[in-house]
Write a structure and sequence with these properties.
Blueprint: E1 2-6, H1 15-27, E2 32-37, H2 39-46, E3 56-60, H3 71-77, H4 82-91, E4 97-100, H5 104-115, E5 125-126, E6 129-131, E7 136-140, H6 150-168, E8 174-178, H7 189-199, E9 205-210, E10 222-224, H8 227-254, H9 257-265, H10 267-276, E11 285-288, E12 293-296, H11 303-318, H12 321-335
Parallel strand pairs: 1-2, 1-4, 2-3, 4-12, 7-10, 8-9, 8-10
Antiparallel strand pairs: 5-11, 6-7, 11-12
Helix pairs in contact: 1-11, 3-5, 4-5, 6-7, 6-12
Length: 336
C-alpha cells in the first residue's frame, strides 16, 4: 500500500511526519511511504534515522499552507504546497491514502476539490473515533459542515455505520442522532426532520435521539449531527477529559502522604486511563465521502500519532470502505 504524508503539516513538521513514516515501515511490511515537502529539509531529517531507503519516496514541494490562510484561496495560489502535492498523488492514483496534520480547512477543502466527492454524496464529513466508558464511538460530522440539511445527516449516518462496521467488525452498529431530548418531537427543524428520515432507513440500526450526557458512555456507536454541534461535542469532550485528569493529579499532589501512597498503587490505572484518552492512539479522523482515503491527523501529532494514522489508512483500505459507500449510494438510488 502506498501512503503519502504531508510532511509540512502539523506543529512538529517535518520531524513528526518523518518519524511516523519510519515507524510505519517498521510495523507494516506492505507499506511504501511518500513524504511531501522541501526536499532538502526532508532528506536532512531522514539522514538522522535508519530505515529502508527503498520504501520512502520524497516528493519536493516548495510551499506550505498555514492555518491562518483562507483554505480555498491558498489551495489555488500554492499549487506547489506540500498538502496539494500530497492530495494530487491520491487523485492520480499513485498513492492509496493521504495523511495530513496541517490546516484542517485546507485539507478538507483539498480533499473535496482535488480528490473529489464520491458520486452521489452531497457533503463529505469528518468522523473521529472517540473513547467512551463502554467502548469507542464515532462523531459524524465533527466540523466539516457547519450548516446541514436533513439528507446530509442521513448520508453521514450511512457512511459512519459502514466505516464503524468495517473498522470494529461490529455488525449493524447502533446509530443515534445527537439532540436535546430523547423524544422524536424534540429539537430544531433539522433534527426533527432528520429523525423522520433516519427512522425510515433500512440499512442502518437507528436507535433514536441521544442526549449529550449519554455520549461519553460509548453505548451508541455512531453519533450523527451537523458540524457545528459535532465540533462543539468533540472539543468539550477533549477539554473535559484533560481537565478531569488534571484535577485528579492536583488533588493527589495536595493530599496527605498516606493518600499519595494509595495513588502510587493506582498509577497503572491512571496510566491506562491517560492512554485511553490520548489522540495519538487513534492517529486521526477519516474524511468520509471523498473518493480516496483521506486521514486528518491532529495538529500536534508526534511520530506515534502519524504511525497510527497509517494503521488507520490500512484498515480503511482493507475494509473496502469506499466501495461499500458507493454501493450504499447506488442502493439508495434504486430504492427511490
Amino acid at each position: 500500500m502506498k501512503i503519502v504524508i504531508d510532511g509540512m503539516g502539523g506543529d512538529n513538521a517535518p520531524k513528526a511526519a518523518i518519524e511516523g513514516a519510519i515507524l510505519a515501515l517498521k510495523e507494516f511490511n506492505d507499506v511504501h511511504m511518500y513524504i511531501t515537502g522541501p526536499k532538502a529539509a526532508i532528506e536532512e531529517e531522514l539522514s538522522k534515522a535508519e530505515y529502508d531507503k527503498e520504501r520512502i519516496t520524497v516528493i519536493d514541494a516548495t510551499e506550505v499552507i498555514t492555518t491562518n490562510e483562507h483554505p480555498v484561496m491558498a489551495l489555488r495560489r500554492k499549487k506547489d504546497s506540500s498538502i496539494v502535492k500530497a492530495l494530487n498523488l491520491v487523485k492520480s492514483g499513485e498513492c492509496d491514502a493521504v495523511i495530513s496534520g496541517g490546516s484542517t480547512g485546507a485539507f478538507l477543502a483539498g480533499c473535496t476539490l482535488i480528490v473529489g466527492r464520491i458520486k452521489g454524496i452531497e457533503r463529505p464529513a469528518l468522523a473521529p473515533i472517540m473513547p467512551g466508558r463502554r467502548g469507542n464511538f464515532m462523531v459524524i460530522d465533527s466540523g466539516a459542515n457547519v450548516d446541514c440539511k436533513p439528507n446530509y445527516l442521513v448520508q453521514f449516518a450511512n457512511m459512519g455505520s459502514i466505516y464503524y462496521e468495517s473498522v470494529f467488525k461490529k455488525d449493524k452498529p447502533s446509530v443515534g442522532l445527537v439532540n436535546i431530548g430523547e423524544e422524536a418531537e424534540k429539537g430544531n427543524e433539522l433534527t426533527k426532520e432528520t429523525y423522520k428520515l433516519l427512522n425510515e432507513e433500512t440499512n442502518i440500526n437507528f436507535i433514536g435521539n441521544i442526549e449529550p450526557r449519554e455520549i461519553p458512555t460509548g453505548e451508541t456507536d455512531v453519533l450523527v449531527c451537523d458540524g457545528f454541534v459535532g465540533n462543539t461535542v468533540l472539543k468539550l469532550y477533549e477539554g473535559a477529559a484533560m481537565n478531569l485528569l488534571g484535577i485528579i493529579k492536583d488533588h493527589i499532589m495536595e493530599a496527605p502522604f498516606i493518600s499519595k501512597i494509595g495513588a502510587g498503587l493506582l498509577k497503572p490505572v491512571f496510566k491506562t486511563l491517560k492512554v485511553k484518552f490520548d489522540y495519538k492512539e487513534v492517529g486521526g479522523a477519516p474524511f468520509l465521502g471523498v473518493d480516496g482515503i483521506c486521514i486528518k491527523a491532529h495538529g500536534s501529532s508526534d511520530g506515534k500519532a502519524f504511525k497510527n494514522a497509517v494503521k488507520q489508512a490500512r484498515i480503511f483500505k482493507e475494509g473496502k470502505v469506499i466501495d461499500k459507500i458507493k454501493e450504499n449510494v447506488e442502493n439508495h438510488k434504486k430504492n427511490k
